[in-house]
Automatic annotation (TrEMBL):
<dbReference type="InterPro" id="IPR051082">
    <property type="entry name" value="Pentapeptide-BTB/POZ_domain"/>
</dbReference>
<dbReference type="Pfam" id="PF00805">
    <property type="entry name" value="Pentapeptide"/>
</dbReference>
<protein>
    <recommendedName>
        <fullName>Pentapeptide repeat-containing protein</fullName>
    </recommendedName>
</protein>
<dbReference type="InterPro" id="IPR001646">
    <property type="entry name" value="5peptide_repeat"/>
</dbReference>
Length: 81
């Protein structure tokens, strides 16, 4: 899935399968991504302010610690160590 530079503000993507999605520079402000599968997704430059990622799978996803600090909730997120 290629969504480069898309605006998805306030969308409800609970449980979405975004495995390997290309989400570079996507505006995900306040998006609900709890229980979403983002394995291998490329979130380079994506805006994650206020995102809900509870129980989401971020294994092998390209995302920075700086981006993760802007997330509203990330309880029990699966990530590489």
């Amino acid at each position: 899935m290629l969504l480069t530079q898309a605006r998805l503000r306030d969308a409800d993507l609970t449980g979405a399968d975004l495995t390997g999605a290309q989400l570079q520079e996507v505006d995900l402000t306040r998006v609900e991504l709890s229980y979403a599968n983002l394995q291998g997704a490329d979130l380079t430059g994506a805006t994650l302010t206020g995102v809900m990622l509870d129980e989401a799978d971020l294994r092998a996803a390209k995302v920075t610690e700086e981006q993760l600090q802007t997330i509203l909730s990330k309880r029990n997120v699966k990530q590489e160590p």
